[in-house]
Structures are given as structure tokens and as C-alpha cells.
């Protein structure tokens, strides 16, 4: 059983990228990447979509 992130959770995906979950969809989450300290250096969009199978929760907003 896969644990699905909730709004406000911090997740990690790909090669150590992190972000805050802004919206939970049926098969994915929308993540705000500006959470990362080095965001400006990465030259990426502010938000991205990550499939539930492709991330792990590193901090739960419920804690």
C-alpha cells in the first residue's frame, strides 16, 4: 500500500529534489519547489506534478 501525501507535506523525488505538496490529485500531487534553498540556482518551474509512485514523504504536515 502506497502512502499518499497530503497538502502541506514535504516530499522528496527524483535525485533529492524537495517540495511542499499544494494539491493532491487522484494519481499525483502538485508540488511547490520554491521550498528548496537552492531553488533559484536550479532554473526550474516553481511547481511540478509528481506521480504518487515517484516520491517519498520526508515530513508530514500532520506531525
From TrEMBL:
Protein's name according to its UniProt entry: DUF2187 domain-containing protein
Amino acid at each position: 500500500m502506497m502512502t499518499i501525501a497530503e497538502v502541506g507535506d514535504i516530499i522528496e523525488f527524483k535525485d533529492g529534489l524537495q517540495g511542499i505538496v499544494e494539491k493532491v490529485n487522484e494519481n499525483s500531487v502538485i508540488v511547490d519547489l520554491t521550498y528548496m534553498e537552492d531553488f533559484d540556482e536550479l532554473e526550474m518551474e516553481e511547481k511540478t506534478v509528481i506521480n504518487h509512485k515517484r516520491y517519498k514523504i520526508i515530513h508530514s504536515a500532520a506531525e
